[in-house]
Design a protein that fits this description.
The chain is mainly α. The chain is built from 15 helices and no strands. It has three domains: about 110 residues, Alpha Horseshoe (Serine Threonine Protein Phosphatase 5, Tetratricopeptide repeat); about 45 residues; about 80 residues, Alpha Horseshoe (Serine Threonine Protein Phosphatase 5, Tetratricopeptide repeat).
Length: about 250
Protein backbone atom coordinates (compact mmCIF):
# COMPACT_ATOMS: atom_id res chain seq x y z
CA UNK A 1 0.00 0.00 0.00
CA UNK A 2 2.79 2.43 0.91
CA UNK A 3 4.54 1.68 -2.40
CA UNK A 4 1.34 2.33 -4.38
CA UNK A 5 0.70 5.62 -2.63
CA UNK A 6 4.32 6.74 -3.09
CA UNK A 7 4.02 5.77 -6.77
CA UNK A 8 1.16 8.21 -7.23
CA UNK A 9 -1.94 6.06 -6.73
CA UNK A 10 -4.84 8.29 -5.69
CA UNK A 11 -6.73 7.17 -2.55
CA UNK A 12 -9.60 9.48 -3.54
CA UNK A 13 -10.18 8.76 -7.22
CA UNK A 14 -10.46 4.97 -7.30
CA UNK A 15 -14.01 3.79 -6.61
CA UNK A 16 -16.04 0.65 -7.28
CA UNK A 17 -19.34 0.97 -9.18
CA UNK A 18 -21.04 1.18 -5.76
CA UNK A 19 -18.83 4.05 -4.67
CA UNK A 20 -16.52 2.17 -2.29
CA UNK A 21 -12.99 3.49 -1.87
CA UNK A 22 -9.88 1.79 -0.51
CA UNK A 23 -10.74 3.40 2.83
CA UNK A 24 -13.99 1.44 3.00
CA UNK A 25 -12.25 -1.85 2.31
CA UNK A 26 -9.56 -1.19 4.91
CA UNK A 27 -12.15 -0.29 7.55
CA UNK A 28 -14.42 -3.25 6.82
CA UNK A 29 -11.45 -5.64 6.99
CA UNK A 30 -10.03 -4.15 10.18
CA UNK A 31 -6.67 -3.14 8.71
CA UNK A 32 -5.83 -0.17 10.93
CA UNK A 33 -2.31 0.33 9.54
CA UNK A 34 -3.60 0.53 5.97
CA UNK A 35 -6.40 2.81 7.08
CA UNK A 36 -3.90 5.20 8.66
CA UNK A 37 -1.80 5.29 5.46
CA UNK A 38 -4.89 6.17 3.42
CA UNK A 39 -6.02 8.87 5.85
CA UNK A 40 -2.54 10.40 5.96
CA UNK A 41 -2.48 10.35 2.15
CA UNK A 42 -5.55 12.57 2.10
CA UNK A 43 -8.42 10.09 1.77
CA UNK A 44 -11.48 11.80 3.33
CA UNK A 45 -12.50 10.17 6.61
CA UNK A 46 -16.15 10.61 5.66
CA UNK A 47 -16.00 9.25 2.11
CA UNK A 48 -19.43 7.78 1.29
CA UNK A 49 -20.60 5.00 -0.97
CA UNK A 50 -23.70 5.35 -3.16
CA UNK A 51 -25.82 4.23 -0.19
CA UNK A 52 -24.17 6.72 2.16
CA UNK A 53 -22.03 4.14 3.94
CA UNK A 54 -18.93 5.53 5.63
CA UNK A 55 -15.76 3.81 6.78
CA UNK A 56 -16.78 4.46 10.40
CA UNK A 57 -20.01 2.54 9.83
CA UNK A 58 -18.11 -0.45 8.46
CA UNK A 59 -15.56 -0.38 11.28
CA UNK A 60 -18.35 -0.18 13.86
CA UNK A 61 -20.35 -2.97 12.22
CA UNK A 62 -17.31 -5.23 12.17
CA UNK A 63 -16.23 -4.33 15.68
CA UNK A 64 -12.85 -3.11 14.43
CA UNK A 65 -12.06 -0.86 17.35
CA UNK A 66 -8.60 0.32 16.23
CA UNK A 67 -10.02 1.43 12.88
CA UNK A 68 -12.96 3.13 14.54
CA UNK A 69 -10.68 5.02 16.94
CA UNK A 70 -8.51 6.19 14.06
CA UNK A 71 -11.53 7.50 12.18
CA UNK A 72 -12.91 9.25 15.25
CA UNK A 73 -9.49 10.82 15.85
CA UNK A 74 -9.56 12.07 12.25
CA UNK A 75 -12.90 13.78 12.93
CA UNK A 76 -15.09 11.27 11.08
CA UNK A 77 -18.76 12.19 11.34
CA UNK A 78 -20.22 9.75 13.88
CA UNK A 79 -23.70 11.14 13.21
CA UNK A 80 -23.67 10.29 9.49
CA UNK A 81 -26.68 8.31 8.28
CA UNK A 82 -26.91 5.73 5.55
CA UNK A 83 -29.74 5.95 3.00
CA UNK A 84 -31.73 3.45 5.10
CA UNK A 85 -31.25 5.58 8.23
CA UNK A 86 -28.58 3.41 9.85
CA UNK A 87 -25.72 5.08 11.71
CA UNK A 88 -22.39 3.77 12.95
CA UNK A 89 -23.85 3.47 16.45
CA UNK A 90 -26.91 1.53 15.32
CA UNK A 91 -24.78 -0.83 13.24
CA UNK A 92 -22.47 -1.45 16.21
CA UNK A 93 -25.51 -2.13 18.40
CA UNK A 94 -27.05 -4.55 15.89
CA UNK A 95 -23.78 -6.49 15.77
CA UNK A 96 -23.52 -6.41 19.58
CA UNK A 97 -20.05 -4.87 19.57
CA UNK A 98 -20.12 -3.27 23.01
CA UNK A 99 -16.62 -1.75 22.79
CA UNK A 100 -17.49 -0.03 19.52
CA UNK A 101 -20.76 1.20 21.07
CA UNK A 102 -18.81 2.66 23.98
CA UNK A 103 -16.32 4.37 21.68
CA UNK A 104 -19.11 5.97 19.67
CA UNK A 105 -21.02 7.04 22.78
CA UNK A 106 -17.90 8.81 24.04
CA UNK A 107 -17.58 10.49 20.63
CA UNK A 108 -21.08 11.93 21.02
CA UNK A 109 -23.01 9.55 18.76
CA UNK A 110 -25.72 8.80 21.33
CA UNK A 111 -26.39 12.49 21.90
CA UNK A 112 -26.68 12.96 18.14
CA UNK A 113 -29.16 10.08 17.94
CA UNK A 114 -31.43 11.64 20.56
CA UNK A 115 -31.30 15.06 18.91
CA UNK A 116 -32.20 13.48 15.58
CA UNK A 117 -35.17 11.69 17.16
CA UNK A 118 -36.44 14.90 18.72
CA UNK A 119 -36.12 16.69 15.39
CA UNK A 120 -37.95 13.88 13.59
CA UNK A 121 -40.74 13.89 16.14
CA UNK A 122 -41.12 17.66 15.80
CA UNK A 123 -41.41 17.35 12.01
CA UNK A 124 -43.88 14.44 12.35
CA UNK A 125 -45.98 16.38 14.85
CA UNK A 126 -46.11 19.37 12.51
CA UNK A 127 -47.19 17.12 9.66
CA UNK A 128 -49.80 15.49 11.88
CA UNK A 129 -51.31 18.84 12.80
CA UNK A 130 -51.45 19.83 9.14
CA UNK A 131 -53.06 16.51 8.19
CA UNK A 132 -55.54 16.79 11.03
CA UNK A 133 -56.62 20.15 9.70
CA UNK A 134 -57.16 18.66 6.25
CA UNK A 135 -59.11 15.52 7.14
CA UNK A 136 -60.75 16.77 10.32
CA UNK A 137 -60.30 13.62 12.37
CA UNK A 138 -56.53 13.44 12.65
CA UNK A 139 -56.65 9.61 12.79
CA UNK A 140 -54.47 9.11 9.72
CA UNK A 141 -52.05 11.72 10.98
CA UNK A 142 -51.70 9.98 14.32
CA UNK A 143 -50.93 6.71 12.57
CA UNK A 144 -48.27 8.35 10.41
CA UNK A 145 -46.70 10.06 13.40
CA UNK A 146 -46.58 6.82 15.37
CA UNK A 147 -44.98 4.77 12.61
CA UNK A 148 -42.32 7.43 11.99
CA UNK A 149 -41.38 7.55 15.66
CA UNK A 150 -41.34 3.76 15.97
CA UNK A 151 -38.83 3.52 13.14
CA UNK A 152 -36.57 6.03 14.87
CA UNK A 153 -36.70 4.70 18.41
CA UNK A 154 -33.58 5.16 20.56
CA UNK A 155 -30.63 2.76 20.03
CA UNK A 156 -31.74 0.69 23.03
CA UNK A 157 -34.70 -0.48 20.93
CA UNK A 158 -32.22 -1.50 18.24
CA UNK A 159 -30.51 -3.73 20.78
CA UNK A 160 -33.88 -5.15 21.81
CA UNK A 161 -34.69 -6.15 18.23
CA UNK A 162 -31.33 -7.86 17.64
CA UNK A 163 -30.69 -9.62 20.98
CA UNK A 164 -27.65 -7.44 21.54
CA UNK A 165 -27.26 -7.87 25.28
CA UNK A 166 -23.71 -6.52 25.59
CA UNK A 167 -24.60 -3.46 23.53
CA UNK A 168 -27.73 -2.93 25.63
CA UNK A 169 -25.67 -3.04 28.82
CA UNK A 170 -23.24 -0.47 27.35
CA UNK A 171 -26.13 1.83 26.41
CA UNK A 172 -27.71 1.51 29.84
CA UNK A 173 -24.35 2.36 31.36
CA UNK A 174 -24.42 5.52 29.23
CA UNK A 175 -27.72 6.49 30.90
CA UNK A 176 -30.13 5.15 28.28
CA UNK A 177 -33.56 4.87 29.88
CA UNK A 178 -34.83 1.28 30.36
CA UNK A 179 -38.33 2.77 30.81
CA UNK A 180 -38.33 4.67 27.51
CA UNK A 181 -41.33 4.04 25.28
CA UNK A 182 -42.45 4.52 21.72
CA UNK A 183 -45.60 6.44 20.84
CA UNK A 184 -47.71 3.28 21.16
CA UNK A 185 -46.34 2.72 24.66
CA UNK A 186 -44.01 -0.16 23.86
CA UNK A 187 -40.91 -0.28 26.04
CA UNK A 188 -37.52 -1.84 25.19
CA UNK A 189 -38.55 -4.83 27.32
CA UNK A 190 -41.71 -5.36 25.25
CA UNK A 191 -39.75 -5.17 22.01
CA UNK A 192 -37.10 -7.56 23.33
CA UNK A 193 -39.82 -10.01 24.38
CA UNK A 194 -41.46 -9.82 20.96
CA UNK A 195 -38.18 -10.57 19.16
CA UNK A 196 -37.07 -13.25 21.59
CA UNK A 197 -34.05 -11.24 22.68
CA UNK A 198 -33.32 -13.16 25.86
CA UNK A 199 -30.01 -11.50 26.67
CA UNK A 200 -31.56 -8.04 26.37
CA UNK A 201 -34.55 -9.06 28.50
CA UNK A 202 -32.15 -10.16 31.26
CA UNK A 203 -30.13 -6.93 31.06
CA UNK A 204 -33.26 -4.77 31.11
CA UNK A 205 -34.74 -6.60 34.10
CA UNK A 206 -31.47 -6.13 35.99
CA UNK A 207 -31.69 -2.41 35.14
CA UNK A 208 -35.14 -2.22 36.71
CA UNK A 209 -37.39 -2.43 33.64
CA UNK A 210 -40.99 -3.16 34.65
CA UNK A 211 -42.23 -6.52 33.27
CA UNK A 212 -45.81 -5.53 34.11
CA UNK A 213 -45.79 -2.25 32.17
CA UNK A 214 -48.75 -1.79 29.84
CA UNK A 215 -48.96 -0.33 26.35
CA UNK A 216 -51.37 2.43 25.44
CA UNK A 217 -52.29 1.03 22.04
CA UNK A 218 -54.69 -1.77 21.15
CA UNK A 219 -52.46 -2.59 18.19
CA UNK A 220 -49.97 -4.37 20.44
CA UNK A 221 -50.09 -6.77 23.35
CA UNK A 222 -50.58 -5.37 26.82
CA UNK A 223 -47.38 -6.48 28.52
CA UNK A 224 -44.00 -8.11 27.76
CA UNK A 225 -45.15 -11.46 29.11
CA UNK A 226 -47.98 -11.61 26.57
CA UNK A 227 -45.67 -10.52 23.75
CA UNK A 228 -43.37 -13.44 24.53
CA UNK A 229 -46.27 -15.84 24.94
CA UNK A 230 -47.82 -14.89 21.61
CA UNK A 231 -44.49 -15.57 19.92
CA UNK A 232 -44.40 -18.97 21.67
CA UNK A 233 -41.26 -17.99 23.54
CA UNK A 234 -41.94 -20.06 26.64
CA UNK A 235 -38.48 -19.61 28.12
CA UNK A 236 -38.78 -15.83 27.90
CA UNK A 237 -42.28 -15.95 29.32
CA UNK A 238 -40.92 -17.74 32.38
CA UNK A 239 -38.11 -15.21 32.78
CA UNK A 240 -40.55 -12.32 32.62
CA UNK A 241 -43.16 -13.96 34.79
CA UNK A 242 -41.66 -16.91 36.68
CA UNK A 243 -44.14 -19.55 37.85
CA UNK A 244 -45.12 -19.30 41.47
CA UNK A 245 -43.83 -22.10 43.70
CA UNK A 246 -46.42 -24.64 44.71
CA UNK A 247 -47.25 -24.19 48.39
CA UNK A 248 -46.30 -27.11 50.60
CA UNK A 249 -49.26 -28.53 52.36
CA UNK A 250 -48.79 -29.57 55.95
CA UNK A 251 -49.77 -33.18 56.66
Amino acid sequence: MRFLLESGASPKAARTPGGETALHFAASSGHAGTLLLLLDAGCPADARTDTGTTAAMLAAQGGHLDCLRLLVAKQADVAARRSDGATALRLAVRSDHAAAVGELVRAGALAYEHRAILAQEAIAAKGARAAAGRDGSGANARRRRGSATIRSGPPLFEAARHDAGRAAAELLGAAEDPHAHLTDGRTPLMVAATFGSESVVSVLLEAGADPAALTVSKSFSAAPQRNALQMRLRRLTNILSPPRPTPIRSP
